Amino acid sequence: xxxxxxxxxxxxxxxxxxxxxxxxxxxxxxxxxxxxxxxxxxxxxxxxxxxxxxxxxxxxxxxxxxxxxxxxxxxxxxxxxxxxxxxxxxxxxxxxxxxxxxxxxxxxxxxxxxxxxxxxxxxxxxxxxxxxxxxxxxxxxxxxxxxxxxxxxxxxxxxxxxxxxxxxxxxxxxxxxxxxxxxxxxxxxxxxxxxxxxxxxxxxxxxxxxxxxxxxxxxxxxxxxxxxxxxxxxxxxxxxxxxxxxxxxxxxxxxxxxxxxxxxxxxxxxxxxxxxxxxxxxxxxxxxxxxxxxxxxxxxxxxxxxxxxxxxxxxxxxxxxxxxxxxxxxxxxxxxxxxxxxxxxxxxxxxxxxxxxxxxxxxxxxxxxxxxxxxxxxxxxxx
Length: 383
Description:
Elements: E1 3-4, E2 24-32, E3 38-45, E4 58-61, E5 66-73, E6 77-85, E7 90-99, E8 104-110, E9 113-118, H1 120-150, H2 156-186, H3 190-200, H4 203-209, H5 212-215, H6 222-246, E10 257-260, E11 263-266, E12 276-282, H7 287-303, E13 308-315, H8 319-329, E14 335-340, H9 342-347, E15 354-358, E16 364-366, H10 372-382
Parallel strand pairs: 2-8, 12-13, 13-14
Antiparallel strand pairs: 1-7, 2-5, 3-4, 3-6, 6-7, 8-9, 10-11, 12-15, 15-16
């Protein structure tokens, strides 16, 4: 399943008693038709609570267009596989699928698409993927259009287009659910059920229409935990929406303070001091974050001085990794290190980069700046 990344989905696969899968080996064999600029694949494996760390669990190199990966596991876990390019950026396409102990998966990557096969479980997964694929492609095309319009300079016309796309999205979502339900009525295999909820994320509905053979299989211990986790995630997202609104455009900045290396770092050390300040919530491992750094460096070099500054807030990142990225990318503007989730919780941020422009008095002028819009915003207010 080829997907465009907006954020890593917090999900997991069956929690089975450890004795059932006592340290069995999961094997993954990959073939990359054209390695191009790919140097290795990042592998993220879900934790016990079903969530993913922001940093990869492991990586595997491509040699002669092939790679082999194996890991001993006690229970099935959801995994996330994606390529990293020579320049350190992450490929925008990826695949989510479960790593099942004792099973063998064959992953073929060609022209940016992933095809999964192998043992019985993964043949079932491939069948589900083939069915859902066309509908998923339709969604991805829509998603790209939405992203392209979102990246345009903020305007009344752009906001109208986005509102119309939001309406169309719900129609597409309902259509997609219809096809998924039809598939699950005819298929009682576990892989199809798991494939459905990895794309649909509506665990309760999936469980309602699953057959008993599925409920008593790999998924048997899965859905209750996933529903609980989904409810927690939904609650957190709703809370973040409230926080984001309270720190939205026109609102006064909310100070954060982070202790690192024996020093107290505050956002108020920079914001609300009479300057226009662009604050970038970012991380070294985040490909989209790294791609915005040249834009931030450009605007910093062009406007820095008594009226303007740029500040980075290292989010969900280790300080040593942040410092390494700063050196690699040639960042000279100041940083607040080791913020982890302090800044994201303060501003209702659920995905990075989040680039915010603050006014001289500390009020939020614009949020969600990306690409060309970064310099356009700085130029607009400074000139």
